[in-house]
Write a structure and sequence with these properties.
564 residues; alpha+beta; Cytochrome-c3 Hydrogenase, chain B; five-stranded mixed beta sheet; three-stranded antiparallel beta sheet; NADH_UbQ_OxRdtase_CS; NADH dehydrogenase (ubiquinone) activity; cell membrane; multifunctional enzyme; oxidoreductase activity, acting on NAD(P)H
Length: 564
């Protein structure tokens, strides 16, 4: 079934798929060193990609050279960590055209003076990532446009992920009035007003505060204020064992339904780190579970969006929850849980399909077969609704090059015409064996992001149906759900890896550095909502307050993976 825009999209001068300058040749540590010249200090080899160490005063020129010369235009993550003798910032670079072209740029600084150049002038997304690195680890970044804490209060003493952090030290959090950021901007004949939205407000989709400066009725400035539910998930994972104790945590980063996708992010990273294979049958089970989880998440996003934009609680919101409940029942049969699934295991999944299998298949097929008619209902209620069209068409514009600069991924990126999906572009699981399509919209507005999610529900159902066909005919004696995984996993000391999956909200990545023990020395979570939310000011400034709410809702952020 096709979901169309209410009008023909205009021609665009932007070509989000345009190839980078010299991104064709093989990418190895020597190629990185040649591209960086004197800025390179040494080369490394991470599990997922080549790596190069650079001088701390050459960050901007080095990242710009790799972006423009080698086509590494996606700064997906920044990891900060402290060693006994130094600090490091690790910039994880990819290509939007081909995410299998990866590189890590390592910036060491001495413990006595942990200062390096900021990457924000080269990649806008580095601004929030470096603020988090400063907040939690203590590295300072010169030329950063706004280096202050991002998750913790400004009055916080110490850096929680530092080696010498005193967890017993009491903290006094001072209450300060939020100041209007444009009160002293000096513009003639202009008066601005500060409006606080949240932190406890339905339109913020979680515990988040928007500090909005209004010029008349238009948004002149908006700053997302995050960190209200920061739980230091990374530190908890660093204290857990690879085999048994980390897997329950990823579900808690996305309680909107994407937990199984988060579990896969950890499984993929740890399996790459420890060289663990996954049986083919288990890969199909993972793919089935993951796409049901994606539908679960998107149904909530679509229903909540109708509530945000047109106040539709009695029809679209409740329809979405009705259909979501059907998926919830299937996942409860499969995993035994309704919220924190904990179904994945390193090397596979915890158990096979519920018995009787035929009854389970019938339940899944009943949902998939009934979905096209329900999507037509959503089209009538949403995409054909002229009030919603007026609120979302040509509002919340996010051009593709701006989206890339902020590291935007998932439906938000695909709504800006960026044809980027890790399920296809960096295949894992069973996706490359199935017939499905990536949903992309070119118009870069709030309406485009809604269309992408509705089309992704359709494609996810298509994937689920193919998985059911495969599982139904799978020989009984070949139904291996888990490979032979050692009871205790101890990767080699100083082994580093960054892997990611296509979660419901975008690229969910995890970086792990091993130290030879059965727990990680560093565990970094790259939540897609974190980078997507950073782009909100680009979408909302110059718009009206209702457009701001529509733009925020179109991001489908969840604060569990923003704050972590």
């Amino acid at each position: 079934m096709s979901l169309e825009r209410p009008q023909q999209p205009p021609e665009s001068d932007d070509d989000p798929a345009a190839p980078a300058a010299d991104d064709a040749g093989p990418l190895d540590a020597d190629a990185l060193r040649r591209a960086l010249g004197d800025a390179a200090l040494a080369t490394e080899e991470h599990v997922h990609a080549p790596a190069v160490q650079i001088r701390p005063d050459a960050v901007q020129s080095s990242l710009s050279a790799l972006r423009d010369g080698l086509g590494l235009d996606h700064l997906s993550c920044v990891t900060a960590q402290e060693y006994e003798d130094r600090y490091e910032s690790v910039y994880h670079l990819k290509s939007y055209d081909d995410p299998t072209r990866e590189a890590s740029v390592v910036v060491p600084t001495p413990r006595s003076d942990p200062v390096s150049e900021s990457a924000a002038p080269a990649f806008r997304t580095a601004e929030w990532h470096e603020r988090e690195a400063y907040d939690l680890v203590g590295i300072r970044y010169e030329d950063h446009p706004d280096l202050r804490r991002i998750l913790l209060p400004e009055t916080w003493q110490g850096h929680p992920l530092g080696l010498d952090y005193d967890q017993t030290r009491p903290q006094v959090v001072r209450y300060d009035e939020n100041a209007n950021p444009l009160a002293e901007d000096g513009r003639a004949d202009t008066n601005t007003m500060l409006l606080n939205i949240g932190p406890h407000h339905p339109a913020t989709h979680g515990v988040m505060h928007l500090q909005v400066a209004l010029d008349g009725e238009q948004v002149a400035d908006v700053e997302p204020d995050i960190g209200y539910i920061h739980r230091c998930e990374e530190q908890m994972c660093q204290r857990g064992t690879y085999r048994h104790q980390i897997m329950p945590y990823p579900d808690r980063w996305d309680w909107g339904g994407g937990g199984l996708l988060n579990e896969w992010a950890y499984a993929r990273t740890a399996e790459a780190l420890a060289d663990i294979d996954v049986p083919e049958y288990a890969q199909v089970l993972r793919t089935l579970a993951a796409e049901l989880s994606r539908i679960l998440s998107h149904m909530l996003a679509v229903g909540a969006y109708a509530l945000d934009v047109i106040g539709d609680f009695t029809a679209t919101f409740q329809y979405a929850l009705r259909d979501r409940e059907l998926v919830q029942n299937v996942l409860e049969d499969l995993t035994g849980q309704r919220l924190m699934f904990n179904y994945f295991r390193l090397g596979g999944v915890v158990w096979d399909l519920p018995e009787p299998r035929e009854e389970f298949f019938e339940k899944v097929r009943a949902f998939v077969d009934g979905l096209p008619e329900k999507l037509r209902e959503y089209r009538d209620l949403l995409t054909a609704n002229e009030i919603l069209q007026a609120r979302t068409v040509d509002t919340g514009i996010l051009p593709p090059e701006v989206a890339k600069d902020y590291g935007v991924t998932g439906p938000v990126a695909r709504g800006s015409g960026i044809d980027y999906d890790l399920r296809r572009d960096d295949p894992y699981g069973y996706y490359d064996e199935l017939d499905w399509a990536v949903a992309v919209e070119e118009d870069c507005d709030n309406f485009a992001r809604l269309l992408v999610r509705l089309r992704e529900v359709e494609e996810s159902a298509n994937i689920v149906a193919q998985c059911v066909d495969l599982l139904e005919g799978w020989p009984e004696d070949e139904r291996t759900i888990q490979s032979n995984v050692p009871r205790t996993i101890k990767p080699d000391d100083d082994t580093e890896v960054y892997r990611a999956v296509e979660a419901a909200k975008g690229e969910l990545g995890i970086y792990i550095r091993a130290d030879g023990t059965d727990t990680p020395a560093r565990f970094k979570i790259r939540g897609p909502s974190f980078s997507n939310l950073q782009a909100l000011p680009e979408m909302a400034e110059g718009e009206y307050i209702p457009d701001l709410i529509a733009a925020l809702g179109s991001l489908d952020t969840i604060m569990g993976e923003v704050d972590r």
